[in-house]
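Hey everyone, long-time lurker, first post.

I ran two proteins through the pipeline my lab uses and got sequence/structure pairs for each. Pasting them in order. The first:
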Amino acid sequence: MKTVFGHSRDGSSVDSMMTPMIDVVFLLLIFFLTTSSFQKLEKQLPTAAATPPDSQPTGANAEQLPPPALTDFNDVVIKLHQRDGGGVSYKLQNQDIASLDELSDRMTAILKVRSDVPIIIDPDRAVEAGEAILVYDLIRRRGSLSVFLVAK
């Protein structure tokens, strides 16, 4: 069978048959670019070795704050419980927190290590919404990029 390159009898060329294939290739390229995920790989998350040794906090709170636990940094859970005598008690990763100021200091220390860690605020049903919003605003002011409220 003989193949003729160049102009055929009806005037069409080989180049005009390539145009639909190029269109399909560009459509596939656009499809794969728009459906791919651009999330940060878990291998690139910060570690304890990545922090410089001279970045220790200074001042009166330097001795009071323990370093944040770097073992479980998938998310940070803050639970709010209504006390019997009034007021709210706080738990950060199931550790009791004495006051809102201590919670603020610990969140500042955690967010220095990783500011994009998801923070989940889990209030009990008895806790007023204003108290949960107060904690939410406090965490956002500290520089958190993702804060979530649990609704029950």
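...and the second, right after it:
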Amino acid sequence: MANECCSGSATVIFTCSGAANVGQIANQAAVDLQQEGVAKMLCLAGIGSHNSGMIASGKGAERVIGIDGCPVACTKKALKHAEVPMTEYVVVTELGFAKKDHDGAVDADAVARVKDAVRRRLAADASCGPF
């Protein structure tokens, strides 16, 4: 079970859900983390479309996790443009996965490694104990 300071709406996730395999890995990791109670997933398209409610939700969160699939960094750039500060950031390709066309299958090992990376970053904060 997630530590109370790292769960619920106080911690939100914005993620890439791009056309490449790594975007789909990032997105699935975020969906799983939400289902596990680690954070609430919010819509990056809402940030990109300048949805004031979505931007306010991001700015009002205690912790903002950004997950990008690749170094193009769409999540990071969109949040920066909207002035939503990230507290944790993960890039799937930096975990050793190559970007390629999405073939319809999401690599479960890759998803697990992204989730582990997010959990490690959350746990590294002194105010948030291990899971």
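Reply from user beta_strand_b:
Welcome! Quick read of the second one: The longest helix spans residues 108-124. Residues 14-124 form one domain.
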